[in-house]
Amino acid sequence: MKFIFWASGIAIILFLAGILFTLLSNSIPAFGEVGLRAFFTSGVWRPGAYGEPTYSINNFILGTFMVTAGALVFAVPLGIAAAAYLSEIAAPWERELIKPVVEVLAGIPSVVLGFIGLVVLSPIIANIFGLPNGINALNGAILVGIMALPTIITLAEDAITAVPKEYRHASLALGGTRWQTIWKVTVPAAFSGITAAAMLGMGRAIGETMTVLMVTGNMIARPSSFLDSVRTLSANIAIDIGDVVFGSVHFHALFVVGLVLFTITFIVNLIADILIRRKPEVNK
Length: 284
Prior knowledge:
Structural class: mainly alpha
Largest sheet: 2 strands, antiparallel
Strand content: under 5%
Strand order of the largest sheet: 1-2
């Protein structure tokens, strides 16, 4: 039995190393042809231009961070409030009712959320802001925020529940109200765990593809606001992969996009893991 667990752990490490090797080995030809600097300088992604093709991914990185930041602005306050309610206020029957709903929310296919974004959310955004359509970064941020909510709520609730009861008792003994205890004692004591929940939710938002592909417009131009259409890194791979010639510079440039996405996601998850490991220190 011990060998099975050891082999499973080694297999996961090998899978991750294989993914990294594939991305690096297929990105190197693009770096050689285009140059590393060209991918991150001003310009646009025009692999099929009649003149000199350009492979700048700046606008895709900006679009990815706009959708991710908007999703966190929407999901983090709502997720923390829901987690605090479930942990500190909700009756047992309420907890038993709400938690399955949160789990169901995590299981909704991204294509279904994208369709809802097209037929429901897009007209609402267009009417509110007076736009021809609501297919933009704001639409994608709201939907990706909904997708990140289950991760944030579940992990933040665990972090708040893990705060020792002595903290609550001491606050109440000093005259603090229930709300003061929650927002000034319990939630701050679980700060590192809540931050880790937000970071993992961010990792979920960065890698989302289908929903943002359907509702963000996929324009390659630089966006100037959340009401502009954007294209994310993951959406660019999904759009271009069907037309690319195997072994071409365009083909290898898509691996560079994947490598950048992999690096961002790895850093976010690494920071979240460090914060989770710090959580027991906070609770001492």
